[in-house]
Structures are given as structure tokens and as C-alpha cells.
């Protein structure tokens, strides 16, 4: 049984992080996580932008997002704290909103560094938590120790994120707020709703206004982003499961396999079967 299943949290280092981050094809994390970079760089593609992280930076990953590894340097040193969502949901709504906002900033390709002194403290906390998790010594209250150490880590992150992001979040422009809500809605509804009209109505604005704002903030139109999210879902389903193409098309909400194949080929210029074959050979 993994530490994640047993204790609700698991920690990976640069030596085994690629057991969870696929290096050669798009992947979806099974659980949310914090990834910290101590040295070197890693470049990830997420949704519609590339995000490069270097020393003294961190990111939050979310199971609703599909990532693709672009590159990693030889001197890459990292820790990934992967956790069960319910482990963090008990924390304040304000903290959860800050995490969501941090995630939003990443989508906008804004990696935010934090002071080296703060990285040192967090790094030590994470390493101590890993030491307890990895210890084979019988500990009577190991689960409780892990929960408390994870709480300490969360409070550390709440402090850092609040300091870095609270001001920015309060200064979020009306345009950024529209894109923030659009991306949040899209993560929740993209399997059933693919029209710009649906997402515009959710915010009581016109489709033209939504499209214009999304384009000005992200560089892509709302319809392009909707198609991109669906395509990313399709890629992960095709290369991480043996489900027939007809079942994949059904999961993705297409009327039939032909509609899905037409959509897929239009955006990637290969059929779903040809795409899947690339990873089999």
C-alpha cells in the first residue's frame, strides 16, 4: 500500500518524481500536488501555455489539468508533495481560493518565485515529513504525526501564498476574473458543454465579450481553448487506457465515433487510432 493510500500524503524526489510525471506523453495527475524546485529547471506544458520553473519556485498541480513534459535540466532537484484532496479541504476556504488563484496564474504562464530562506524552511519540513513517512520503525501514532506535519506544511504554504498572491488576487481585473471563472467552469463542464454560448451565459455576458476577453488575456479564443481541453482529454484517454475509440468518444460526449474522429483529425491531423499507434510502437 502506498503512503498516499495509507496516510493521505506521499512525497517524491527528483529520483522518483517521473513515476508520477510522465516524461514522454501527456498525463493527468491522479491527485493534487505541490512541486518545489531547489535547483535546475523543468518546463511543463499545461492547457494552452508552457510554464518554466527554476530554483526557488513552486507550482500546484491539479487533476483537472493535463500536463506535458517539455524538458528538464540535468541538475534538477525537486520535491513533490502529493496529497488526497480531502486532506486539504478542511482548511479555510480562503486558503483553497488562494490555491485556485495560484493555479490560475500558472495557466497564464506566471511562475512566481519565493525567497530562498522560505524555500529552505519548506524544504526541511517536507524532508522531515518524508523521513517519518519512509521510516520503517514502529510508531504508535504515525498517522497522527503525518497529519500534524502535513498541517504544519499547509500553514507554511498558506502564509507564503497569502503574502505572494493575496494582493494580486484582490487586484484581479474584471477581465482576469472573467477568464478565471471561464477556466473554472470549463474544467467542470467540458465533457458535456462545448459551446462558447454556454460559458458566456454562466457569467451573464455576451459570447462576443467572453471571446474578446479570453483572447486578450490568453492569446487564444474561447473556442480554441475549449477544443484544446477536449483534445488533451482525448490524448490522455487514448494513451493511458485500452478503451476502444468508440468508448473514448462516448466518454468525451461525442454523438458517435465518427464525430469524434473528425474533431480529432481536424485538430491534430491524425486519426485517434494513428495517434494511439505512435505510443504503441
UniProtKB/TrEMBL annotation:
Keyword DNA-binding: yes
Gene3D superfamilies: Homeodomain-like (1.10.10.60)
Transmembrane segment boundaries: none
Top-rank taxon, per record: Bacteria
InterPro entries in alphabetical order: Homeodomain-like_sf, HTH_AraC, Tscrpt_reg_AraC-type_HTH
Keywords, ordered alphabetically: DNA-binding, Transcription, Transcription regulation
Any one Pfam family match given in the protein's UniProt record, by short name: HTH_18
Residue ranges occupied by any HTH araC/xylS-type domain in the UniProt entry: 176-278
PANTHER family named in the record: ARAC-FAMILY TRANSCRIPTIONAL REGULATOR (PTHR43280), TRANSCRIPTIONAL REGULATORY PROTEIN (PTHR43280:SF32)
The protein's name: AraC family transcriptional regulator
Organism, scientific name: Chryseobacterium herbae
